[in-house]
Every structure is written in C-alpha cells, then in structure tokens.
Specification:
- The protein has about 240 residues and is an alpha/beta fold.
- It has one domain (about 45-240): Vaccinia Virus protein VP39 (Rossmann fold).
- Helix content is about 30%, strand content about 30%.
- It has helices spanning about 45-55, 65-70, 90-100, 115-125, 145-150, 175, 180-190, 205-215, and strands spanning about 5-10, 15-25, 25-30, 40, 80-85, 105-110, 135-140, 155-160, 190-200, 215-225, 230-240.
- The strands form 2 sheets. It has a 7-stranded mixed sheet with strand order 7-6-5-8-9-11-10, with helices on both faces.
- The chain is globular and about 50 Å long.
Length: about 240
C-alpha cells in the first residue's frame, strides 16, 4: 500500500494552527499539525452522510411552495433555507443536497479558505463536486457569526465544526455549544426548524443545555463507515412551531 503524502497546508485564522491535506492513491485525509490521527478522510464518512440526510430528508416531501403550509409556519413560499457549519470533505453537503428540492438554498460557512480551495481543486470529486451545485453559496466566516445575524431565517442548521461539544480541538468553537450559542441557534431557526449537531462521542451536559434552551432532542448513534467502524452521535434538536415570547 502506498504511503500518505503531504499535498498542501492551510492556516486556520486567528492563530488556530495549521491544517494539512494528505493523499494516498485516491484517498485524502485532513489532519491538524501536532494532532493525532485524521480529522476527516474520504474513506470513512458514513456519519457525515448521516448528518446531512437526517437533517434534510424531510424537505424532500414538504410542500414549501404551498401557501397554506408557509402561512402555518409563519414564512413566505421560498424553498428550504439551510445553513451548514463546516465544509470538511464535502460529504455532509452532498448528502443534504440529495434530499433537498430544486428551490432550496444552502449556505456553507467554512472558516478556512484552504479547505474550500481543496474541495474545488482536489477532493471535490470524492463527494460528487457538491460545491458546483447552483443551490450552494460558500461564506468564508465563522458559522456563529451567520447564526447571530439570522432571525427565524433557517429551516435547518447543521454543525460539524469540531469533534463535538466536549471534544474540541479548537477552544474558539466552544461558543457554538454554550447556552448563549444554542439560544442564538434557536432564534436563527424558523418554527419547526432543526439544529443538527455531529459529535465523536456522547455529551450529556450538551443535551441538557439543548433542552434548557427549549429544543426537543432526538439522539442518533451512527457508524463512521457503511454500518461499521466507530459510533458517532448526531443530535436532531427541533424548535417548536410557536415562537417564544
């Protein structure tokens, strides 16, 4: 078997360290300098696929163009509005797009410009080139900033920006999982909107915070690769239909 070879590096903004892209034959892996093991790779992405599918599968059948339905949810007749925090190798985005109708719009917030470049120029084919989809817009920013600016703006927010609420590799991401961050996500979602969060391991305190904010929570355990490998966690936290006063 061939050895992993370093292809490129990318700086994480705000002195967050360095990401490194490796290649071995047709496989790619992203690692953080000084870290242990892969942050992500193109061989084991089952849980990333599941994040996109579980968060967006309901939109394939919901009549977003229906005025009665739109009125019930307090929204106009535009298609589903999705926010994804973290591009990675593009597998979560690709899975979401497979579920979404033609009038959906997806914003991907990716803090590291190099990761976007790798997806466009090197690794995109592994996930089917999801960035080429006309429904997708990329924002080179912290997903938390987009969440703060939104008010009942999204039907779903998907977060895959670290190893989970209690397995952070970048302490700066802690604000996303704090009570204040979850409250901001709740406000950014439309009634019945879903906050979907990926994690490498369980996090009971995080689930408690979700419920304290007002979400109803469904916890799913999924495999890292085609029904085998490590078990990861996906939380589907749903906002109620009635806006809080």
């Amino acid at each position: 078997m061939s050895r992993w070879e370093l292809v490129d590096t990318a700086e994480i903004p705000n002195d967050g360290g360095e990401l490194r892209l490796f290649r071995r034959d047709d496989d790619f892996a992203i690692r953080i300098a000084g870290g242990q093991g892969d942050l992500m790779n193109t061989r084991t992405h089952g849980s990333e696929d599941a994040l996109g599918t579980l968060a967006c599968e309901r939109f394939a059948s919901e009549p977003f163009a229906s005025e009665p339905f739109a009125s019930e949810l307090g929204r106009d007749s535009q298609g589903a509005q999705i926010l994804i925090g973290g591009l990675g190798m593009g597998f979560t985005l690709a899975a979401a797009l497979l579920c979404l109708p033609a009038d959906a719009q997806v914003v991907v917030a990716e803090l590291v410009p190099g990761v976007v470049r790798w997806n466009r120029d090197l690794v995109g084919g592994c996930a089917g080139h999801p960035l080429a989809d006309e429904r997708v817009r990329v924002e080179s920013t912290d997903v938390g900033e987009l969440i703060k600016k939104a008010s009942a703006g999204y039907d779903a927010i998907l977060l895959d920006v670290d190893n989970g609420p209690e397995g952070l590799t970048h302490p700066e991401n802690d604000h996303l999982y704090s009570y204040q961050g979850l409250r901001a996500a709740y406000t950014a979602l439309r009634p019945s909107g879903v906050l979907a969060v990926w994690s490498a391991s369980p996090a009971p305190r995080f689930v408690s915070r979700l419920r304290k904010v007002g979400f109803s929570v469904d916890e799913r355990r999924v495999r890292a690769h085609r029904g085998k490998g490590s078990r990861h966690i996906i939380w589907l936290a749903t906002r109620g239909k009635v806006l809080d006063k």
